[in-house]
Give the backbone structure.
Amino acid sequence: MTQDELKQLVAQAAVAHVVEGAWLGVGTGSTVNLFIDALAASGKRIRGAVSSSEASTARLRGHGIEVVDAASVDRLPVYVDGADEIDGRGHMIKGGGAALTREKIVADLADRFVCIADESKLVDVLGRFPLPVEVIPMAAPQVARRFAALGGQASLRLGVLTDNGHPILDVRGLRIADPLAMETEVNQWPGVVTVGIFARHRAKLALLGMPQGVRTLDF
Ligand SMILES: O=C[C@H](O)[C@H](O)[C@H](O)COP(=O)(O)O
């Protein structure tokens, strides 16, 4: 099976975890795009969606699904999103599509993070995928120096600004053995808007696409 077919498999499987008649948090990326399409095709009705990016908002609205601001809801029962890496405890690296800040904001509203990904995203230790960090521009060099002190090489993602208008640093060479500790530390650095480690907001459920079918990990 191709990677796209594996994504399609989990996108379809995730529809069963959507709570009918309730608000739904929707992430960003190629896997989520397939999920949005599968949800629309399923005929399952939700009250509306809170979206983590302009791209997902446009896709949802294209299917006639109502999208409201995060400010309009108190809680979401479920948030569905992809990941760039996920470990065996549900910790993730996210932000390969530059949507990490809004993703973390919407995930923070949710009771249950359902991660959908093909099996290539499952790793023992996070860090092979370059860690995305959204930063205030003037702080980029000093944030990069702090990562260098931890053994990471940070480079600006060229030609990319987030939906919030900020640049992204991609940090290579990290081995993130303690995701919660690193997320907590990097969050303290002046000029960091969001670090793409999702440990506080880890997945509660992962649906991983494999040639044999969907592997479910309950954390
Ligand atoms: O900023 C992007 C998000 O964190 C995505 O969820 C992540 O990059 C995975 O995307 P994809 O489903 O395209 O692999």
Notes: The helical segments are 3-14, 30-42, 54-62, 100-108, 140-149, 179-188. The chain has two domains: 3-124+200-218, 131-195.
